[in-house]
Design goal:
Elements: H1 7-53, H2 61-85, H3 95-102, H4 110-165
Transmembrane segments: 37-55, 61-83, 143-162
Keywords: Membrane, Transmembrane, Transmembrane helix
């Protein structure tokens, strides 16, 4: 048996695991930024609307509806950011397996050892990828909500400004 057998596969699997962990870190970071952006956008819209209408001015029904919709959509964007950064469970080698690797299987040949490690990494990748796909879908939805929130905020501002111009 060639000691290089499975080397390409195990290297590929190890690379995939590294990329999936990097993807997880990127999604977590972007989810946190989505939370910040949604909060900041909501605050800026409220401040701009307050500056336009004044402290005692009332919004007409159309402007008020748009404003409430804006805040709800931006709150959803924030919530999707939270869901993006939530912890996800994924499979890793349990303590017993690790002990067997250092005790009973320490003298296994290179090919068998490489195969076991590649299998464990592939198991981790499968569960990590499933969690990352969940995070990515929540991030996507949050970004869409953020865009809709900005558009609704602009419409709110325009609807509130029109009566001021006439």
């Amino acid at each position: 048996m060639d000691s290089e057998q499975g080397f390409v596969y195990s290297g590929f699997i190890a690379d995939q695991l590294g990329w999936e962990r990097a993807r997880q870190a990127s999604l977590d970071e972007r989810g946190g930024k989505l939370q910040q952006a949604a909060s900041l956008t909501a605050g800026l819209i409220v401040a701009a609307l307050g500056a336009l209408t004044g402290a005692t001015a009332e919004l007409n029904a159309w402007s008020l509806g748009l404003f409430v919709g804006t805040i709800i959509i931006l709150a959803l964007a924030f919530l999707f950011g939270v869901l993006t950064t939530r912890l996800v469970d994924y499979e890793v080698a349990d303590t017993q397996t690790l002990r067997h690797m250092t005790d009973d299987h320490w003298k296994d040949n290179v090919v068998d050892s490489r195969s076991v490690v590649a299998w464990l990494n592939a198991t981790t990748i499968a569960s990590l990828r499933q969690g990352n796909n969940f995070k990515a879908s929540r991030l996507h939805r949050g970004i869409v909500c953020q865009g809709i929130g900005v558009a609704l905020g602009a419409a709110t501002f325009a609807a509130a400004a029109v009566p001021k111009l006439t």
